[in-house]
Amino acid sequence: MNIEIRHLTKKYRNGVTALDDISFRVGNGVFGLLGHNGAGKTTLMKALVTVLTPSAGTVRLCGFDTVKQGDEVRARVGYLPQELAMYPSLSVFDFVNYMAQLKGVRDKRAVQEVLEEVEMLEFSKRRIGQLSGGMKRRVGIAQALLGNPPILVVDEPTAGLDPEERVRLRGLLSRYAGEGRTVLLSTHIVEDVYQLCEELAVLRKGRLFYAGTSAALLEQVKGRVKILRLEQESQLIELQRKAVVLATTYESRGLTARIMDESDLYPQAEPAEATLEDAYVYCMGGKAHA
Amino acid sequence: MRKIFAIVHYEYKMQFMCLAAWGILLAATVLSQLDNFPSAGNLARLEFLKEPAYYVYRIMSLDSLILLFGLLFLLAGRLPLDAKTGMKPLLLSSALRKGQYVWGKLLGGFLYVFSMLCIFLLLNTGIYFIAAPFAISLSACVVPLVKAVFVSVIPVSLFVSFCSIALPGMMDIRLFYLLAAVFFGFNASYVGSADAMPFYLLTSGDLVRLIWVHPRWPFVSMGSVAANGLFLVGSGLASAGLLFLKHRFWRAE
Asked: Which residues of A touch B14 (CB under 8 A)?
């Protein structure tokens, strides 16, 4: 296993427990880390890349302990933080070259290679401040790829991107993981995980809610997702008391609710094919409105 | 060392491209020329303006304060900016040590302030040399400039760059701005005397008397010169030292 997390706990000085006894393992390929904002995904990622020291538990990357063997870990991991504005006045090439020097990558061809990999070589002279959000994210990925690390940790790489950029980034991550490496992808966009990951973990309020394959998570809700047509909003309020409402859609004649009918309370509802998003929303115990 | 050089190089490059700093340099030069241009009015007002050493002494002790104040404000954001832009976690996840990061930032800032101050002095002295309605030898301008670089520009650059980069890494940047404004305000309003000057003056302390000394009061207190130099260099180094001592500034190593 490339990443091994055992009983990881992180408590901040203000008493907030950001991570509570987290344990799971990650092998080759793209592994998804799902959770709401504030679920602890970023804290977990920071602990993985040695930015944060755990309060308890251990994290091992490629067999190296993140606390005791930090240098070994840092040499094997590429990281893209959630909000990376970089240095707006530097050119794309200068920024990646700067990061290459800090990572001990001395060959300038390596800089060109990673820029080519993320399709940014033609914009290498452009200033970072002049790039679009998607381009900035690609530059961020480029610096993470420097030194060809066996583990790539990317925090919300597709948040706020247009669909075309999201597809491009997903392709990039998938390609990188396909070469026998590990990509740990943190996101709250279920679609990204569905498209990329065979395995995932779901965090909720700092605790591990699920770790395993996407298929097994889907299996938990299979045959229980139904669509119920309602005429009035008051019926929806009543429904929410009895069942888990996954999503609601308002239409010209009333509304439809996508529900998790665990005890077959609504035989009149039409069965629907379960999606990973249904399973995720069910995990979170919440509902989504459309 | 390669990593420190990389940080110094790119810090210098980023700051050198900062248009605001060039605007401040231009404004300081215009104000300096209004005060010291060798025009008939200024020559009548300032008794020793015909002496290049006096001219260099004057722009260093008075007018450079405007430039330094602006640079201090611009440099103060260097460390908080890394935290704000997400660069800090990125740097922490690389194999970069605290010492490499801090020294890179400090030395990059020092070289930048040093360069800007040298450009300011050269530009102003160049204008004086070209515009003076009396004959001046080149050496008469170069000698006080070289003196100014060694006795004042180096310690002042160290004080401004190290304090403005290191202190906001430890305290609220608004408090730092307030303290800096009070310090510079006091320096700007302080009127010199023939006696030894307070050691804590930035550009008008006794160090600048090594560039030019008033012929009627040819008095230089070497103790006061040393105290002024020690204050500037010592405060800069102490600020950097405090940052090194702050454990929470960097990951546990």
From this structure: 87, 89-90
Q: Over chain A, what is the mean pLDDT?
A: 86
Token duo for residue B195:
């006696």
Nearest CB to A87: which of B14, B92, B96? B14
Tell me if A40 sits within 8 A of B241, measured CB to CB: no
Q: How far is CA B14 from CA A88, A120, B18, B109, B247, in A?
A: 9, 21, 7, 10, 27
Do residue A87 and residue B94 have CB atoms under 8 angstroms apart? no
Is the distance from CB of A23 to CB of A6 less than 8 angstroms?
yes
- Positive or negative torsion for Cα A47, A52, A57, A61: positive
Give the chain A residue whose CA is nearest to the CA of B83.
A84
Domains contained in chain A, CATH given: 3-218 (3.40.50.300), 223-289 (no CATH)
Contacts of B245 (CB under 8 A, 6+ apart): none
pTM here?
Answer: 0.84
Interface check for A71 against chain B (CB to CB < 8 A): the answer is: yes
Backbone Cα Rg of chain A: 21
Q: Which distant-in-sequence residues (6+ apart) come within 8 Å of A205 by Cβ?
A: A38, A39, A40
Decide if pLDDT at A1 tops 70.
Answer: no
Bridge partners of A187, per DSSP, are: A34
CB B199 within 8 A of CB B224: yes
Cβ neighbors of A62 (< 8 A, separation 6 or more) are A2, A72, A73, A76, A150, A151
Cα distance between residue A151 and residue A144, in whole Å: 10
Supply the DSSP symbol for B59: I
* Mean pLDDT along residues A192-203: 86
Give the count of domains, chain B: 1
Q: Which residues in chain A (219-278) have CB-CB distances under 8 A to chain B?
A: none
Contact B93 A79 (CB under 8 A): yes
ipTM, 2 dp: 0.84
Three-class DSSP category at A266: coil
**B14:A74 CB<8 A:** no
